[in-house]
Design brief:
The protein has about 325 residues and is of the alpha/beta class. The protein has two domains: about 1-180, Rossmann fold, CATH 3.40.50; about 185-310, N-(1-d-carboxylethyl)-l-norvaline Dehydrogenase, domain 2 (Orthogonal Bundle), CATH 1.10.1040. The chain is built from twelve helices and twelve strands. It has helices at about 10-20, 30-40, 85-90, 110-115, 160-170, 180-205, 205-210, 215-235, 245-260, 265-270, 280-290, 295-310; strands at about 1-5, 25-30, 45, 50-55, 60, 75, 100, 120-125, 130-135, 140-145, 150, 175-180. The strands form two sheets. An eight-stranded mixed beta sheet has the order 5-2-1-6-7-8-11-12, with helices on both faces. Helix 4 (about 110-115) links the parallel strand 7 and strand 8 (about 120-125). The longest helix has 22 residues, at about 180-205.
Amino acid sequence: MNILIFGLGALGTVYACLLKEKGHRVTGLSRKPVQEAVMEKGARVTGIWGEHHAMLDETVTGVDKINGSNPDLVIVTVKSYDTEKAAAEIARVLSPDTYVVLAQNGYGNFEAAAKHINENQLILGRVIFGAETTGPGASKVTVIADDVILGSPKNLIARYKMEKLASVFREAGIPTRFSKKVMKYIWGKIMYNSALNSMGAILEVNYGKLAEVEHSRMLMESVIREIFALLDKIGQETLWPDPEAYIKDFYEKLIPATASHHPSMLQDIQRGRRTEIDALNGAVVEMGKKHGVNTPVNDIIVSLVKSKEKMGLAIK
């Protein structure tokens, strides 16, 4: 396949390296410092999936610099607040047969991308393996809690096409499967990130530490219960019948599998970058206001993360 990776951060580097290693034609798009490093040294992956290295076919800073034909597949790994801008750029190089996988955190990526790309070309990806940037074009896979889940929110793409795409990722070494109910998985990931990613950024610890202290457990459980109340109000089903069932899995399955992972929000704050809080707890707060559901704990967490962003706090 001819594949464009839009964003060569921690996640994009993993996809670019492993897919190229499997023999696909891979173009990576990123900011100039990363683009130059990958062009010179290639993409590198270490961690629990072993050591990998691949020289990409192209590394560019914009779609106007891509040589050759339209991509068969685009994988979007930029931050959620850049989704609409990325989609507008990607739309310039799409053919009617190109599929775009949104492999990002949070709520609203599909809606933002759909402003520029047809919904029958958009695929949501629930990614729940953890990767950390170790340098420009270098990524370390640290943990995995479950397979990547691919799906069309409105089931506008034929099942056989989705299954074929999932097999492409599996063959590259990225555990992936298709689901007709992808939004159930997306909301599960939103709960996971809203409880762990933001709290880990505020308290500056990995996920395992958050589960060890009574007070942080209490806050995380409140975040989860507020999200369940919101989902009940809007009629969105989840993979769990109630918050108690989710919380049980949260402590017994999800956190143990990702205990050593440091949250991406913490990494963003350390680097003086904007976080994705608006697509996680912030999206919960805004939807709560719209639908008349109180979300006080999520609201406080949003304020704390945004305070850290603006103060430019760094780990010492």
